[in-house]
Specification:
With 119 residues, this protein is α+β, with helices and mostly antiparallel strands. The chain is 18% helix and 34% strand. It has a 5-stranded mixed β-barrel.
Length: 119
Amino acid sequence: MRFRFGPAAPAFAAAALVATAAVAHHGWSSYDAERVMRPTAEVLESSWGSPHGALVIAIEGQRWDVVLAPVSRMQTRGLVEGDIAVGQTVTVEGYPRRDGTREMRAERITAGGKTVELR
């Protein structure tokens, strides 16, 4: 079986790549930027990997997931994995999800004696 691709093939390929990238990257519209949170808490769980870092902390006795920046950005700005290891105390400034899920998008984090901008 032979396939023939006409002059539209490059345009189709470009459109497919853009669509794939849009689906792969989640947006931030599900977070409420009008409600800033600044909890200080002990790290219960920590993930230092792709596509971005993540924490679990306790806020008023409830477990909250914290979405951090990509590891490369955090490292470039001076945050190291040990700063957010389990047992460390951090202050996270960010926005909660609009739907009530206990998750926040972190804009900055204070850990290891420094404050790091994440976005």
